[in-house]
User: Which sequence fits this backbone?
């Protein structure tokens, strides 16, 4: 296979004898990838949905062009799967994303093989990404990132085909995958500027900008943006303003520094420490090599990793979630494997001279798996004392998101009475209750707080609840309003406490879920509740 080495030398059509020997050992990464897929099946079937997955499942029950928090691909895939299977379970909700993980892995393998000329490097590239903690834990999760990663990898694969075949029709496929990436998550919009950046940096393909194919591809991508634009136009651009608000972060200088450093630490954890060091070092070495000699394969991989640099900088200026730039590791993972397996590369020579490459790889894999084991064991048996966990509360997202919700759903089914309307003051709780209560009834978001949610899109007004009895579920006690806190207590003619549900951990209660039956709800008196705004106050 024709290609380029990381140092920029043209490879022959024939694979070298060394690589032929390497290819004979492909069964090792293949077995590892098979084991990872079996692991994903176990997670898909046996682990209950986390709050984010429940939220997107509620989206799938109420189909729309787009949604308040993001674009809608995740909801469309969940709806397609649950309709096909005829029920909503952790398996049926996650099934499309399990399939996506297979296609995504193949695309990394194919791209790595094409750009390096070695099937072994392609397999190691696929294995590298799949061994990261974020992939081991969330590779089949029903979240935005997985379809985004699929279409990001498809776009990268399309451009790798362009490099090796010079067939400009691959711009059409790149445009299609870019549009689907945007429909998967807003950060997919970075694909178009990333491709443009690569074309501008390539002496060989810069002239492609004078052709029709890349611009038609970009036009194809914009077609998939239309549903998002229509939804936002119909809702006063609420989603875009929401993203702008949560991306601004805190205004204080030291808080921005703290957020930025926290983001960098999160990258180390989601990729694993030694893998992260390898990626950073490879990006540095490849960038220096690119400054000395133009190489289309290397620059392609670097440009598709640009979100890592962009989000790293933005994290010091505004809020950035740890997973926002994860698609940048698709190409830089391939680049890392290419550099570390190239005996002529300075970084590879350094390891062979001063360190044991074998020991470094083993340590990197063990560090990644250890992080995953810690998370899994903590969610399964709990690694902290109950007294510590009780104080941590929601700050320990591992326990908070996985423990107690299925039992709460069963408990609520026993206390519900005919005519009760289920409600909660947290959109995460609403989604968790909808999924976990037998029969999966609808749950209303009922809160006096200003924070808008997707549930406010579905029910802007509480007027239709007038006179209803509401089974109200909250992580906080429902108390009468005071000078410092407004509640919905006074909007009921009477409030009947129901025995709280205790979330047990090591045989002790670490938190209570409070339950009340509010009689004869009145959204007009003594104060008007709703209609709900889709905008943050002061924005």
Assistant:
């Amino acid at each position: 296979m024709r290609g380029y080495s990381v140092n920029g030398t043209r490879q022959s059509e024939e694979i070298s004898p060394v690589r032929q020997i390497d290819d004979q050992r492909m069964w090792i990464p293949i077995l590892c990838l098979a084991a990872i897929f079996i692991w994903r099946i176990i997670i898909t079937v046996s682990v209950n949905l986390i709050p984010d997955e429940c939220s997107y499942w509620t989206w799938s029950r109420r189909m729309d062009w787009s949604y308040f928090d993001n674009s809608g691909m995740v909801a469309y895939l969940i709806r397609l799967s649950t309709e096909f299977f005829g029920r909503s379970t952790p398996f049926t909700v996650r099934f499309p994303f399990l399939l996506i993980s297979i296609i995504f892995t193949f695309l990394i393998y194919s791209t790595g093989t094409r750009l390096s000329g070695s099937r072994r490097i392609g397999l190691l590239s696929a294995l590298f990404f799949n061994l990261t903690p974020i992939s081991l834990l969330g590779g089949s999760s029903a979240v935005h990132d997985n379809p985004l990663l699929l279409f990001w990898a498809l776009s990268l694969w399309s451009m790798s085909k362009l490099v090796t075949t010079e067939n400009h029709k691959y711009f059409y496929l790149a445009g299609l995958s870019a549009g689907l990436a945007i429909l998967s998550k807003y950060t997919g919009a970075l694909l178009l500027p990333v491709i443009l950046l690569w074309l501008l940096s390539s002496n060989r393909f810069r002239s492609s900008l004078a052709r029709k194919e890349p611009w038609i591809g970009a036009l194809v991508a914009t077609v998939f943006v239309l549903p998002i634009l229509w939804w936002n136009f119909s809702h006063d651009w609420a989603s875009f303003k929401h993203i702008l608000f949560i991306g601004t972060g805190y205004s204080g200088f030291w808080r921005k520094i703290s957020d930025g450093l926290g983001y960098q630490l999160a990258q180390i954890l989601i990729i694993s420490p030694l893998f992260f060091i390898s990626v950073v070092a490879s990006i540095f070495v490849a960038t220096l090599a690119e400054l000395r000699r133009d190489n289309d394969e290397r620059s392609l991989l670097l440009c598709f990793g640009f979100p890592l640099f962009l989000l790293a900088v933005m994290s010091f200026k505004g809020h950035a979630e740890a997973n926002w730039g994860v698609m940048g590791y698709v190409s830089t993972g391939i680049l890392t494997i290419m550099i570390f397996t190239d005996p002529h590369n300075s970084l590879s020579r350094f390891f062979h001279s001063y360190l044991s490459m074998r020991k470094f790889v083993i340590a990197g894999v063990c560090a990644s798996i250890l992080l995953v084991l810690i998370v899994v064991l903590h969610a399964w048996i709990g690694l902290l004392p109950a007294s510590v966990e009780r104080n941590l509360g929601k700050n320990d997202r591992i326990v908070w998101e996985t423990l107690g919700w299925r039992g709460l759903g069963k408990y609520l089914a026993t206390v519900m009475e005919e005519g009760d309307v289920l409600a909660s003051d947290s959109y995460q709780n609403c989604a968790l209750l909808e999924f976990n209560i037998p029969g999966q009834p609808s749950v209303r978001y009922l809160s006096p707080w200003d924070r808008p949610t997707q549930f406010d899109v579905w029910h802007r007004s509480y007027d239709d609840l007038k006179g209803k009895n509401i089974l109200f579920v909250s992580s906080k006690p429902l108390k009468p309003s005071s000078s410092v806190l407004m509640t919905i207590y006074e909007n009921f003619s009477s409030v009947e406490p129901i025995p709280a549900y205790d979330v047990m951990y090591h045989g002790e209660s670490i938190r209570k879920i409070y339950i009340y039956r509010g009689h004869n709800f009145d959204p007009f008196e003594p104060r008007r509740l709703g209609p709900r705004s889709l905008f943050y106050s002061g924005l």
In short: The chain has two domains: 17-375, 399-519. The chain has a mean pLDDT of 90. DSSP finds 25 helices and five strands in the chain. The longest strand covers residues 494-505.
